[in-house]
């Protein structure tokens, strides 16, 4: 399989036959990519990026074959952005966050800006 990350094409050997490829999950491919990716927030973390194929986001527990992915299919790697209020592992947790429980304190800081 081929994954494209920042314009680079990466080739991954996942199995030896098309029949074996039918049992490979999206998560297994993401684990291979996570070993190679050079972004510090995504390296070794399959949850640090998403994969797309033919404009469809791939779901971790589905099989590659569920999406029609075969040998030499091109899969796109999309890094997840830090922040955005999604509650992910890198979400800001500081006292100055606008999402804090004490909205008045945040508004006071904003007003004094």
Automatic annotation (TrEMBL):
Residues 25-84 form the Ubiquitin-like domain. It comes from the Eukaryota. InterPro entries: Ubiquitin-like_dom (IPR000626), Ubiquitin-like_domsf (IPR029071). CDD domains: Ubl_ubiquitin_like (cd17039). Residues 88-113 are annotated as: Disordered. Residues 92-113 have a biased composition (Basic and acidic residues). This is Ubiquitin-40S ribosomal protein S27a-like. It comes from Labrus bergylta (ballan wrasse).
């Amino acid at each position: 399989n081929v994954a494209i990350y920042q314009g680079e094409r990466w080739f991954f050997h996942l199995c030896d036959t098309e029949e074996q490829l039918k049992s490979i999950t999206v998560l297994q491919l993401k684990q291979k990519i996570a070993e190679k990716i050079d972004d510090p927030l995504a390296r070794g973390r399959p949850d640090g990026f998403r994969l797309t194929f033919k404009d469809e986001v791939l779901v971790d527990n589905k099989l590659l074959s569920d999406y029609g992915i075969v040998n030499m299919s091109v899969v796109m790697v999309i890094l997840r952005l830090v922040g955005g209020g999604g509650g992910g592992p890198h979400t800001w947790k500081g006292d100055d966050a606008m999402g804090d429980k004490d909205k008045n304190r945040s508004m006071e800081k904003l007003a004094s800006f």
